[in-house]
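Intended use. Records like the one below are meant for learning the mapping from a protein sequence to its folded structure. Do not use them to infer anything beyond what is encoded.
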Amino acid sequence: MTASTSTDPGASVTAPDALALVPMHNRIQDYDWGSTSALALLQSRPPSGGPEAELWMGAHPAAPSDLLLSDGQRLALPEAVTRFPEAVLGQPTLNRFGSRLPFLLKVLAIARPLSVQVHPDAERAAEAYRADGESPYVDPFHKPEMIYALEPMEALAGFRSPAQAAMLMGRLGCESLRPLIEVLDGTAGNSPADEPGRLHAALAQLVDWPVIDRAALVAEIAAGSSRVQAAGNTDYREVFGWLERLIGLHPADPMVLAPLLLDLIRLSPGQTLFIAAGMPHCYLSGLGVEILASSDNVLRAGLTNKRVDAEELLRVIDTRPCLPSAVTPTSLSDHEVVWRPDVEEFQLSRIMVRSAEEHRAVPADPSIAGPQILLCTRGQVAVRAGERTVQLIGGASAFVTAEVGQLTFSGDGEIFRAAVGLG
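Structure written out for the chain above:
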């Protein structure tokens, strides 16, 4: 489902203070892996009848938000940035990033696994991007991201050690996988000595597997997986369970082996996962708030019907074995905590407003300044800045320009505050 675009460029806006604190109208991306109900439940509306995967909040050209003005008109957020850059972004943000909102906020509603993918670092994105479209990238920016679990989530992220990956693949008893296993365990004659090199060589075999042989390979993997399941071993049960599900969804894709090659991550509500440049990952299930640098650069390794650019993928992927870790939150007050990963473009805070305090405004921490997006994920919260007040309910958001002063919150609910990183 795609929301309607702004039909009026906001000609009635004659002063940037009209944009100081305004509700937003956001678009939903209807990717086929999306839930048919989760975003509708979040927004307390009827389902659309189709998959609804991502709610986008920001100024990225792929799905820009509109600002809902007090006179009933809409102004596209990119247009607001273009017309009033200093008022909307603030001079510090302009100095660091130019005339663009550097972060993007999303809600992801995952009903089935996404593709296995990686994102380039800033240097490679800027180097390889070409405006004429002859590039693996759609913009010249990197795409670090962090997801916060609103509900239990599962993901694949980061490589296992090559020895562990070889052990898991060996359990399948597939003769076709023997060369791959020998590369991973280092017994192949040309296997690299270092762990990242062995993982890189194994991944290269998978993504370059002859197309004509892929269905037969996955059928052999499926038979091996059935034998593992029948044996009833309890260790790695979830890993082989995901292997089974991926085989059912992608019966001719060697990347169904991703659960044996990448670590399986489980997030409880309130936990986070940070995805750095080059880290392979695949979100499997759940509902979460995602903040990222404003980019849509994706390189896919498999589990998709979209293009796999094997050459560029193997160039940028980080094959060092690592277990992704959560970003440690910092308490700003009794009501607000913040996650500040090691990136310049964004930070994310969560404000809890309780019903017992609905008659006492809760202040936002002033250390977070500049342009902001406020997203309500639960309850009903009144946001106030000076004489302006915006009421937010679940799934609704508001934009705050850099010129807004102290923000306060009252009501009963949960607010996420996306902002530019500290730098």
